[in-house]
Amino acid sequence: MNRIPSSEMTDKKTYLRRREFITAMAAAAGGVLAQRRVDAQQPAVHGRKLATVRSPLSTTETPNTWEHVTTYNNFYEFGTDKDDPARNAPRFRPRQPWTVSIQGECAKKGDITLEDILKGETLEDRVYRMRCVEGWSMVIPWVGFPLANLIKKCEPTSKAQFVEFTTLHDVGQMPGQRSDVLEWPYVEGLRMDEALHPLTILVVGLYGEVLPNQNGAPLRLIVPWKYGFKGAKSIVKIRFVEKQPSTSWMLNWPEAYGFYSNVNPAVAHPRYSQATEARLPSLFKTTKTVMFNGYAEQVQSLYSGMDLRKSY
Q1: How many separate domains does the chain show?
Q2: Considering the entire predicted model, what is its pTM?
């Protein structure tokens, strides 16, 4: 019997919109349902402690719990349900040594191990507000260091206007990649000035410990004034390019997911408003979304003169 490809049974947009509908129905049930969803999976086991210093860039808001942060995740490589990463990622075994390929318009090309990336770096505890395009938010205590530090070591040329990030493609360990919901491997990108901003970090930990698999181990990107999908996880390639890269979500649904993806309450997703959000574990959208996710004072100068409704 010939198997019907999944792409012929349900197109990607319909699949994703069905998931949005399910989320909306869950929201109607309120915060208790959300808490049950968070509690449905076992949180990540605690890992090795990291030596860190507190960052002055941290928010003073109370972080979500370890249980929230490690059981309610977007990591499509492990599945599209929020609890799929907690269920599937613990079996993931990041290759040792973890290597990142540095490519493109830079003087220092080649493969570099995570150990070498971290040499000489002071790891910082950074408590950041994080906002998802689906309307939920958390406050997460990341551990990382400025992406700018690595960029400077790579010595990008004057042609390097953007930085492209590619994540691991390993169908054997990442069951979500058997789906055609996105093109694989996952690709994201930043303009060079965004990548060099001090708020932009490469993350290797969470809550003062090594980064759990479901949160993007062993190396991921965090850009706190943008929607969460900009944070590429399990990064294996960093490429300096002259032209704006085509990212995974832009290829999949450009009307919904633009290159810049700054948190902007005035720009609606095609399926729902972005004017309010739900702070997990509640699913009630009772919090007003703030421009640039509350980091406007630090980053709005990056977009001077731009129409952020068009450059969304």
Answers
A1: 1
A2: 0.88
Residue 3 lies inside a defined structural domain of this protein: no
Phi and psi at 179, nearest 5°, equal -90, 155
The one-letter code for the residue type at 142 is: W
CATH code: domain of residue 276:
3.90.420.10
Helix, strand, coil fractions of the chain, as percent rounded to 5: 30, 25, 45
Question: How confident is the model over 127-161, as pLDDT tens digits?
Answer: 999 999 989 999 999 999 999 999 999 999 999 99
Element (H, E) at 114: helix 114-118
CA-nearest of 246, 235, 123, 236 to 183 is 246
The answer, yes or no, to whether residue 122 has pLDDT greater than 60, is yes
**Can you tell me the distance from the alpha carbon of 296 to that of 79, in angstroms, rounded to the nearest whole number?**
33
**Beta carbons of 198 and 149 less than 8 angstroms apart:** no
Instruction: Work out the number of other CB atoms within 10 angstroms of the CB of residue 79.
Output: 22
Given this model, what pLDDT does residue 28 score? 40
To which H or E segment does residue 31 belong? helix 31-39
Integer Cα distance of 285 and 278 in angstroms: 4
In a domain, 308, yes or no: no
Residue 155 is classified by DSSP as -
Residue 82 CB contacts under 8 Å (≥ 6 apart), including other chains = 37, 72, 73, 74
Nearest alpha carbon to residue 55 among 200, 195, 227, 196 = 200
Rounded Cα distance between 18 and 265, Å, is 23
Query: What is the amino acid identity at position 84?
Result: D
